[in-house]
Amino acid sequence: MTQKERLIIGEGKISGYLSIFLAILCLGATISAYFPEYLTTADFRELYKPNYIKFTFLIVLTLSFGFALASFILSKKTKLGFFAILLIGTSILLASGLPAYQEIDSKSFTIGLDWLLLDILISAVIFIPIELFLPKKPEQTKFHEEWKTDLVYFIISHLLIQITGVLVQLPAALAFSNIGLATFQESIQGIWFIPQLFLALFVSDLFQWSGHYIFHKIPYLWRFHAVHHSTKDIDWLAGSRTHFVDMIAVRAISFLPLYVFGFSASVFTTYIIIVSIQAVLAHANTRINFGFFRYVFVTPQYHHWHHSDDPKAYDKNFAIHFPFIDMMFGTYYPIGKAWPESTGLGDVKFPKGFVRQFIFPFVKNPVDNNTIDDPSNR
Ligand SMILES: [Zn+2]
Ligand SMILES: [Zn+2]
To answer: Residue 82 sits in which domain range?
Structure first.
């Protein structure tokens, strides 16, 4: 999308897209309510109180309707409001036919449609305004060339949350379930909340650093990780672009110390929330630099340098929580006030689209497609 095609305030398109986005969420929520045993995440179900769900559904539906009206009022030309009204009507019709509350029998395989809808709503509410009002690259639009590919990654990784959860935890369970950790874990759980949380973030980032480093340094593994680095327009959604092999392996490695230490439930939940937010924030297209805290915690600026296509920053800033881990291992790139000029794989030609990017690493080395990038730099 060129500069001219950017969304302009007052044309009814922004409200139209917002309306369609919210209407799709409502439709998705209605569909998951029809098949909760297959389309909702077993661990989340007890959090869903029927009254809260109904209330949230009505709020989102009303907002969607309001944006559709705004779109109609602002422009007679755009049909976006019309599509949104169709979606809203379908959601209401379907929702009115929903059976009264019933017991859900748990199936062994579920699709995380609920998790997808919730996380995309929360992430969009937090990150779209940040990127809109405080962008690092104002010229980069939401609808850059590859946003649809990134959205596919986001959707698939969320729908498959159950299976990825099992795969990520499997190596730790296989390796450590029988080694008698109870006394050690009790002493860990006895630590105060804040130091215990810091310890959880530190040990998992230490292991994440190692996994991430290996994926950069071993040429066969780099093929998979190159998918994540192939994005030229980094934003909150682009952070989802990770090959399945890379995602499972690095998450499983990061999970090993968490399993062994057996942190308390409250620390573990807080850890999951921090990881989820920081991973998305690190990729966001925002100039917020967090002042002094950028030397303590990984920020967008820190991680954007990891994605830089400037050879001087190759294989630097692997940490995802604490920059001092990179300092410990000599892989710290001093961020100062500067930002990378551009990100991506330089002149390496990389396939576009989810399916091509999924197959590519199994059959080809991206450096074979390289024109000027020296493979020894990786
Ligand atoms: Zn990397
Ligand atoms: Zn990244």
So the answer is: 1-110
* pLDDT for res 9: 67
How far apart (Å, rounded) are the C-alpha atoms in residues 233 and 203?
A: 31
Owner of token pair 């820190």: 302
Q: How far is Cα of residue 51 from the mean position of the Cα atoms in its chain?
A: 29
Based on its alpha-carbon atoms, the radius of gyration of the chain, rounded to whole angstroms, reads 22
Cβ atoms of residues 87 and 133 within 8 Å: no
Please give the structure tokens belonging to residue 363.
């059959």
Would the pLDDT of 199 be above 50?
yes
Taking the centre of ligand 2 as the mean of its atom positions, its distance from the CA of residue 134, in whole angstroms, is 20
Are the C-beta atoms of residues 131 and 234 closer than 8 Å to each other? no
Based on the domain organization, do 245 and 373 belong to the same domain?
yes
Claim to verify: residue 193 and residue 104 sit in the same structural domain:
no
Instruction: Kindly give the distance from the C-alpha atom of residue 52 to the centroid of ligand 1, in angstroms, as a whole number.
Output: 40
Q: Which are the contacts of 122, defined by CB distance < 8 A and separation ≥ 6? A: none
The ligand with the least distance to the CA atom of 343 is: 2
